[in-house]
Every structure is written in C-alpha cells, then in structure tokens.
Amino acid sequence: MVKRYINNESVALKEEDTESCDKINGAFSSKPRKLLTTREREVLDLILKGLGNKEIAGHMTISPSTIETYLKNIFFKFGVTNRTSAAIKYLAIKSFCISRKVIHEGLNLS
Questions:
Q1: C-alpha distances in Å from residue 91, one per residue of 12, 28, 55
Q2: Taking Cα atoms as reference points, which of 22, 23, 27, 8 lies closest to residue 80?
Q3: How far apart are CA 37 and CA 31, in angstroms?
Q4: How many Cα neighbours within 13 Å face the side chain of 102?
C-alpha cells in the first residue's frame, strides 16, 4: 500500500491503484471496469476546479442527471461515497502517476 498526502490528509492507494496508472490514462487493463472514461476524468478535473454539478453540466453541454450518473460510476470505481473523496483519490492517483513518470522517464525541461 502506498500513502499519498493531499492537503495533509493521508490517502491510502491500493496495489491495484499503484501497479499502473490505468485508472487515469484509460489504457487497456485486465480490469476494464476499473478504468475511468475520458468523460469521467473530465468531470473529476472540473470538480478539482471547484465546479458544481450544474456548472459541470453546462461546461460539458450535457444534463445534470448525466453528471450524477458519471459520479455514481466514479464512486463505484474508486470505492468511495462522495465527490470530495473521489476528488482526493483522483488527485492522489494523478500525483502518483506523475511522480512515477518523472522517476522512471526523467523530467524533460527542454
């Protein structure tokens, strides 16, 4: 288990979260039900910007009920029950994926 700290809150990432970054990048996985779709990632990115469901729906030009469906799917995939927990876990996984990429591939600053 890997721990990440987001705003001084510890987030434990399971092995399946840290083995690969499939939940974030949508790459093929032996557990496809765990993958986030492009739209689900877009919803999470907008939540991280502080938007509410109606604002996200307007931004994505879809109905608020569709946003609620995306959130239910995200909650299931992440094993959480609210948008704050989903956003924190998403941020922790993104942070892990970025740090892993920097460690393994180096940081190209050119």
A1: 12, 21, 20
A2: 23
A3: 13
A4: 8
Instruction: State pLDDT tens for residues 71-98.
Output: 999 999 888 999 999 999 888 888 777 6
* Residue 29 zone, left/alpha/beta (φ > 0; ψ -120 to 50; rest): beta
User: Do 50 and 61 meet the contact criterion of CB atoms below 8 Å apart?
Assistant: no
Residue by residue, what is the 3-state secondary structure of 25-87? Answer: HCCCCCCHHHCCCHHHHHHHHHHHCCCCHHHHHHHHCCCHHHHHHHHHHHHHHHCCCCHHHHH
Question: Over the stretch 21-39, which tens digit does the pLDDT of each residue have?
Answer: 554 544 333 443 457 889 9
Query: Domain map of the chain by residue range?
Result: 2-105
**Residue 78 token pair:** 């992440």
CATH code of domain 2-105 = 1.10.10.10
What is the separation, in whole angstroms, between the first and last Cα of the chain?
34
For the beta carbon of residue 77, count every other beta carbon within 10 angstroms: 18
